[in-house]
Amino acid sequence: MPAVVNREECVSCGTCVEECPENAITMDDEEIAVVNVDKCTECGSCVEACPSEAISIE
């Protein structure tokens, strides 16, 4: 399963966007992280980088 963002926990910092080696994460119109499931390789970089623990791999 690709990474999943808890929209309520995301603090819109963009750290996950910067840390994703596959460029699989962008910010939506509300500045909430969104994962492109076709690009996500489940590496966990975003999970480790997220300061609010809003991202998980299920």
Automatic annotation (TrEMBL):
Top-level division of the source organism's lineage: Archaea
Q: Write down the Gene3D superfamilies for this protein, in alphabetical order.
A: 3.30.70.20
Which parts of the sequence belong to the 4Fe-4S ferredoxin-type domain? 1-30, 31-58
An example Gene Ontology molecular-function term: 4 iron, 4 sulfur cluster binding
Q: Does the keyword Ion transport apply?
A: no
Q: Which PROSITE patterns match?
A: 4FE4S_FER_1 (PS00198), 4FE4S_FER_2 (PS51379)
- Alphabetic keyword roster: 4Fe-4S, Iron, Iron-sulfur, Metal-binding
Recorded hits in InterPro entries, A to Z, give:
4Fe4S_Fe-S-bd (IPR017896), 4Fe4S_Fe_S_CS (IPR017900), PSI_iron-sulfur_center (IPR050157)
Protein name according to UniProt: Ferredoxin
